[in-house]
Amino acid sequence: MYHWDFYTVLQSFDLFLIGIWTTLLYTIGSIALGVVIGLTACFARLSRFWAVRLLARSYQELFRCTPLLVQILWAYYALPMLLGISISNTVAGLLTLSLYVGSFYAEIFRGGINAIDKGQREAAAAIGMSGVQSMRYIILPQAVKKMLPAFINQSVIQVKNTSLLYAISIAELTYMTSVVNSETYRPLEAYSLAAVMYFVMLFPLTQVADHFERRMRRSD
Amino acid sequence: MTQATISLRGLTKSFGALQVLNGIDLDLMPGEVLGVIGPSGSGKSTLIRCMNMMELPTSGSLLFKGQAISPRFRGKDGQPGMGELRKRVGMVFQHFNLFPHLTVLDNVTQGPRIVLKEDRAEAEATAHDLLAQVGLADKAQAYPSHLSGGQKQRVAIARALAMKPDVLLLDEVTSALDPELVGEVLGVIRALAGKGMTMVIVTHEMGFAADVASRVLFMEQGRIAEEGTPEDILRNPKSERLQAFLSRFHA
Ligand SMILES: Nc1ncnc2c1ncn2[C@@H]1O[C@H](COP(=O)(O)OP(=O)(O)OP(=O)(O)O)[C@@H](O)[C@H]1O
Ligand SMILES: [Mg+2]
User: Fold this and answer.
1) ipTM of model
2) Which of the two ends of chain A, N or C, has the fewest CB atoms closer than 10 A to its terminal CB?
């Protein structure tokens, strides 16, 4: 019978805290950057210039169709060789995570905007609104509501994806758990605890997403 | 001679290979109520949508009060653009297209506040007057989803009127309504006609066209096939096609 010993592991709680804090920083940072990138790519996809559309599309497919882990390793180990400069793991990690989530956000934003009936755009145009005004006052406020569940779900995935930064030695939760493990030789307790911590962070978020989804279905 | 509010000169419109309007010449005079009738697919909607450049003409020109309008939003080289045109030409849609995330009041004030840069108090005062005029004074704070079709369409009319347009374009604005709600919307339009509002009305309600229009166009295959007073067109149709169209209607 296995003898559970959380006490030893919990003595390294400060290491877990560092991990949680770092995970949160990378999550928030990459989501914020990802929103900016996603919005840019989304509007580029809706552009009337085909070259702009093609560029945005290529970026999206590149990041959606290759594994995030490969992207992270590539940005950290391969890109510096290609450019002949050094890239810190912080920069490589944050940038890759942001570009990755941005490619998915772009699709979510575009879906939300396209889901708005074209009559809305016409009604806005008919009272003399410009394209930008109609986007700002009529389309986006409605689209944001439709996007919210998918946006939150993608952000939940993003929290979990920060664990891949383990591969380039960024001190996020998974990496710090491995540190705890190597100090205590208690993998079962350490990784179980890590799983619980992720769960506690994410479960409320999925509930929020469900809530918005239910509310949206009601209002339709 | 007074100047036409909207003039179309040799206007054509194609969707890909399909030519929908085949050279339309038309002058809409101030105070005129123009009824547009014709079979499905004859180009009525396309015609009325060209009048505020919701559809861009393939060739030909549109003049607003004698001035050519550029098919760009802001215009070019001193020519006003379609943004300017749409401030002066209102449109009401078959499916209302109210903004569902805004209250009735905000639906009506949106244009004046954002496009005409009126301040909120001024825009809301006008909006309350207009809502009273269409019989919806008590619905200002309601959301569109809580209104009946007839109420929605009256809000849509108020929203268009809030821009103080010179012309109102109405494309089958009662077609999506339950029969018992048609009357209240037609009543509002009739009142507008009585006040001298210039309007273009695409309709399948022949009785209403006869009643409210000062001139009726019969469209067929992208052309104005016949035009005249409601009396001429609806009671004494000359062409066989128009006779056939009308008899199908009465049947
Ligand atoms: N955006 C579009 N793209 C392609 N074809 C179109 C488009 N809009 C209209 N058409 C075509 O143009 C023709 C005229 O359409 P339009 O809507 O102007 O007719 P209508 O007289 O308003 O008919 P209805 O009485 O059914 O409303 C039709 O054959 C229609 O299929
Ligand atoms: Mg039509």
Assistant:
1) 0.93
2) N
